[in-house]
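Hey all, quick one. A colleague (J.T.) asked me to put the iron/sulfur cluster job into the tracker so the inputs and the structure tokens live in one place instead of scattered across chat threads. No bug as far as I know, just bookkeeping. Sequence used:
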Amino acid sequence: MSSQQNGRRPYLPPFRRDWWLQLRFYRLYMLREATVLPLLFFVGWLIYGLYSLGQGPMQWQHWLEFMAKPWVFVLNLLTLAASLFHAKTFFELFPRVMPLAPPGLMIAGQWLGTVVVAIGLIVLLGGYV
Amino acid sequence: MTQTIVIARYNPEQDEKPHHEAYQVQSDDNTSVLDALQQVQQQDPGLSFRWSCRMAICGSCGVMVNGVPKLGCQTFLRDYPAGLVITPLSNFAVEKDLIVNMEPFLEHLSAIKPWLINTAEGTQPHVQTPKQLAKYQQFANCINCGLCYSACPQFGLNPEFRGPAALALAHRYNLDSRDQGKAQRMPELNAKNGVWTCTFVGFCSEVCPKKVDPAAAINQGKVESAKDMIVSVLKPSGAR
Ligand code: SF4
Ligand code: FES
């Protein structure tokens, strides 16, 4: 029996393109997804840096000056903030995907790992050893 | 106290599309959305909505309250001093007023074979330890209310997506020590509209009245799906 015959006329509202603006929860989700954008800049500059390193001291100096420009610095700060926000959300989601230990312990462990790796890299690359 | 609530109305025999109407209801601290709807039904017997148990068990009273999926019997007017707009569950077609067609949801549920698949002969009971039960118990608490489907933008974008409750239920049976049906369910999980359609928006778990955490179940399903794919690549062809 068709919908017409039995009096049914189901109405499916069109799916809103701006669905993610409707609730705070969705906006935060979109923010998490958007953290990849500043990261793209950062990766681009890193590749530029590697390239400059290969080109010799002149180009390397040029890259260092570029990285010290205020707007580059500010964008890098933004990248750091975005990455920390992404890390926070990721670390909180991870124990739900792989419940290996109590969530609190896993979240703390991941932050500890991040700090250890960060300090290790700073010591190693900063010329402290 | 008198409170105004706004309800989406749609009469398929008269209306081109749904519209909102305001109603006055008497409310105190114990007035649920379902109670309020029943009061409105006294004024206007034509108002259609689903309910049965009034105690968050049957899963039939789902509606959107101010854009968030809720069980009507478990949601109270006292928590909405600024007023409420009650609309039918999102991402489903409206049949009349607050009643939606749940058929697509039920199809997704049955597609993942949500029952014990066990080839053991005889009438022996299947023994299970508390530890084995604990593995899947959380995912077995689903009451099939469908709120998670209304919370899921991926389902809204692509109604073919198997969706939160169905994939959580698949995971629930796959984790059950008495079940042997995992090999039959994995193709559904691996498929285009299976677990990989999920992007972990996570609102499904937020709105779930039974704390099933379907988003966790789906993403645990991704781990299983990845394992399943690696195994199928490593296995010599023909072996199964
Ligand atoms: S997973 Fe939760 S929200 Fe989804 S149908 Fe089951 S009980 Fe309802
Ligand atoms: S009436 Fe049964 S869950 Fe609300």
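Adding what we noticed when we looked at it: DSSP finds nine helices and seven strands in chain B. Chain B touches chain A through 30 residues (CB under 8 Å).
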